[in-house]
Each structure stands twice: as structure tokens, then as C-alpha cells.
Write a structure and sequence with these properties.
There is one protein chain. By secondary structure, the chain is of the alpha/beta class. The chain has one domain: HAD superfamily/HAD-like (Rossmann fold), CATH 3.40.50.1000. Strands 3-2-1-4-5-6 form a six-stranded parallel beta sheet, with helices on both faces. The chain is globular and about 50 Å long. The structure holds magnesium ion. Magnesium ion binds next to loops. The site of magnesium ion has 8 residues, from loops.
Length: about 210
Amino acid sequence: MPPAPSTSSPKPAVFLDRDDTILNTTPRTALTAAPGDLIDPALVEVLPGAAAAIARLQAAGFTVVVISNQGSVARGLASLAQVELINDTFRKLLRPLPPLPVYYCPFHPKHPGNAFGFPHSWQKPGPGMFFAAAADLDLDLAASYTVGDKVRDLAAGIAAGLRPDRCFLLATTGEHPRLAANPAALPGSVQLCADLPAAADLIVQHSSNM
Ligand SMILES: [Mg+2]
């Protein structure tokens, strides 16, 4: 007998980058080989207001999903187990929120010779992680939003079918001020925003007006 057709409709999501969107990596850059590399779970720190912002998005009906490049694996700086440990650590720090689904890309094309050193559709700005999450979690990409601190975070969402005006670039790292001075470098009508709490406010406000 064929499986019964799903009676649920795809759900809107908010896709969040991890490093410098949910987690503060800025004080860690002196300790790690590259900005954003979080390898020691003792150094995991949730940015102010991020947990409340995620709770606000969930209360508004969004499935919140974490989408993260972790090229440190391909660079030989971290193992998959270390990345998983960081992910488990920040999900515990976000309690009592239920554990967030996390998709991460350990691949990076510039490190041939490493088992993960090749191009992969999951690596942002590619859309692969968005497609995988949408298939796994029954998500409506056209009704979804994304938030990140790098243009590649937003480019990945746009490549997956998100509307550019539903993509938010945060001021938590250097790309926001540079691009604010040169808006032509931004893809489409991407929105600039201070931090995740500010983006969550705009997303909830925008979606309630739909
Ligand atoms: Mg980031």
C-alpha cells in the first residue's frame, strides 16, 4: 500500500547562521586559527538576546533552523565530533528552548588532501543545507527568512529560493558596515540589521502583516 499523503502543509522557517549570529566568536579570534572557529566548548558564548529572539520566532510559528559552514574540519583544525560538541553545548545554553536542528558543512574546496577538502553543495553560498532542511522538516522556503553576518549566508538563502527582502545581514562582524557604505555590493533588497534580536523583531512584524 502506498504511504498516505501528508496532510500537513509546509511550514515557514527562519534559518540562522551560527557563528556571530547566535554565538559570540569575537573574543575567540585571538585563540583560534581563523575568525569564527569555535573548537573549545568552554569558549561557547551565546550573544546577548539571542535566546529570547529565537523563542520569539518560535512563538510566532517559525521553525528555527541553524545553518553553519564549518570549514575548520576541512582545514584539519576540528573533527566532526568537536563540531558536534560545540553544537550540543550551545543548544544546552539555549535551554529551556528545545534543541534546534543544526545543519553544518564540514567541506571546503581549498584544502585538497583532507577527507573534506572538496567543493560541496552544502557550503554556503550554495543552497544545499537549506534544501536538506526543507526536505527533512517540511519547510516552505518561499515563506521563510534567513539571518547571518556574512553575505554568503544570505546568498545561500537566495539561491535556495528565499526572497532577498527576507534576508537579514547583521552588524556583528565586519561585512555590515563595509556594505552599508556600498549598498550596490549587497544582493538584491537584503536588509541590514544590528543583531539577531533586531532581526527577529522585524521578521515577526513583517510576517504578521502578511
Ligand atoms: Mg557567521
